[in-house]
Design a protein that fits this description.
With 410 residues, this protein is α/β, with parallel strands linked by helices. 42% of the residues lie in helices and 16% in strands. Strand 1, helix 2 and strand 2 form a beta-alpha-beta unit. Helix 1 runs parallel beside helix 13 and helix 7 packs across helix 11. The chain is globular, with a radius of gyration of 22 Å.
Length: 410
């Protein structure tokens, strides 16, 4: 029997097993990533676990933060609401090293009042800068321990910020990681980068991103490119920036167009590369086969994953990538790149395919193999779904986070 009727059965079963006897924890979440009215998918990797954590004794106060010069976000109604707070920060790369101090000044009074009203056991900061830096300063001022999550490969912000400002970012990030109770990394690849940068002087844990297996569930045969669906549709989801590899994917699709008359590519996402990618599709004479769908709500992304034949995102710079896991949860064969975080989840040829970054020929061969072989697609898709259910559900992620919170708050 589902003891938590508001949860899907997979989540309710986990909560029922382990949530009853855990000491309650009040968490303050500081994050620049959180769903808003404008973008419901933004920061879903932060918000979705919180909904499950709330059922197993972890209550949350969420401060979603943004610098004052960016477009103002409006909170989105959700099970774990957030308060969007704007803080002063200098624009550009020089502003990032000082952003944490300005954020601290913006919220310290509010946190002090919150602490008097309801004791905060732990702060969870998402990214070292600015939230981790602010958490470190709050910990010093108010005596509240903190943990920090690293969501990408630029763990020290030196890829986005160069020169002296970049070195300043590195030094502050190192202090944030070393002073935290735990550094939570989304993959072993990310953890190794963190440890290389701080001399292994921090306590780290790997907690993979996770999926709601009910939202991202397999569809019918007609949804999934079976005999009732004559379209050979490839789906890609991601911000339209160079590192995501959309240009490589478009060129690979163009090379297969002659052999697959029904081949089509759908791309969900927005970003500065849109016009260049559209021009590339026209130049390769496949603009009629490539659909740019822009940003889509979560349920539309799930529907697109169900109706595609396979999923491909040849990103060359990826800490893990939630969209791979979501496509796997829908029972689709997934193509990612070797050397990235997703290679810790995809076993090549067993539950997905891995190709070389920027390797158009290898990507085209993998696409062609899967397009031609329906039984292989189904086998990979089943194994992919099983991989998610075995260790990558929101319930499993929430249990791991709750254990880390308990240890870190002690």
């Amino acid at each position: 029997m589902n003891s938590n009727p508001q949860l899907p059965p997979v989540l309710a079963q986990s909560v029922g097993r382990t949530g009853a006897h855990r000491k309650p924890i009040h968490l303050l979440t500081l994050t620049p990533f959180y769903p808003s009215e404008r973008d419901e998918a933004g920061g879903c990797f932060v918000s979705e676990p919180l909904e499950v954590l709330a059922t197993i004794g972890v209550t949350n106060t969420v401060f979603a933060v943004q610098p004052f010069y960016r477009e103002k976000h409006c909170p989105r109604t959700s099970a774990v609401p957030s308060e969007w707070l704007r803080y002063f920060s200098l624009p550009g790369g020089f502003g990032l090293p000082t952003a944490g101090a300005f954020l601290f000044a913006r919220i310290v009074g509010r946190v002090r009042k919150l602490q008097r009203w309801q004791r905060i056991d732990l702060i969870h900061a998402h990214a070292a800068l600015p939230c981790g830096h602010a958490a470190m300063l709050l910990s010093t001022e108010l005596g509240i321990p903190y943990v920090v999550s690293v969501h990408g490969l630029d763990a020290f912000s030196t890829e986005q910020v160069g020169g002296r400002a970049g070195q300043w970012c590195r030094r502050i990030s190192q202090r944030v990681y070393r002073s935290s109770r735990r550094v939570i990394c989304i993959s072993e690849h990310v953890r190794e980068l963190v440890l290389e940068g701080i001399g292994r002087a921090a306590r780290t844990s790997v907690v993979f991103n996770a999926v709601d297996p009910e939202l991202f569930s397999p569809g019918s045969e007609a949804d999934s490119g079976g005999p009732a669906n004559v379209s050979q549709s490839i789906l890609s989801v991601g911000n339209l920036i160079p590192i995501k590899g959309h240009a490589v994917l478009i060129r690979a699709v163009a090379s297969l167009a002659g052999d697959f008359p029904a081949l089509a590519l759908e791309i969900i996402g927005e970003g500065p590369e849109l016009s260049r990618l559209q021009a590339l599709a026209r130049e390769l004479h496949i603009s009629d086969r490539v659909r740019f769908l822009g940003r889509q709500p979560r349920h539309e992304v799930a529907a697109a994953m169900r109706r595609c034949m396979l999923f491909a995102l040849p990103s060359r710079y990826e800490g893990l990538g939630c969209v791979y896991l979501e496509a796997m949860a829908t029972g689709k064969p997934v193509i990612g790149c070797r050397g990235q975080g997703i290679a810790e989840i995809i076993q090549h040829g067993t539950n997905g395919f891995l190709v070389g970054p920027e390797n158009e020929r290898e990507l085209a061969l993998a696409l062609a193999m899967l397009l031609r072989d329906e039984s292989r697609r189904r086998s990979l898709g089943r194994a992919a779904r099983d991989t998610v259910l075995e260790r990558l559900t929101l319930a499993q992620q929430a249990e791991t986070l709750a254990r880390i919170y308990g240890e870190s708050a002690a």
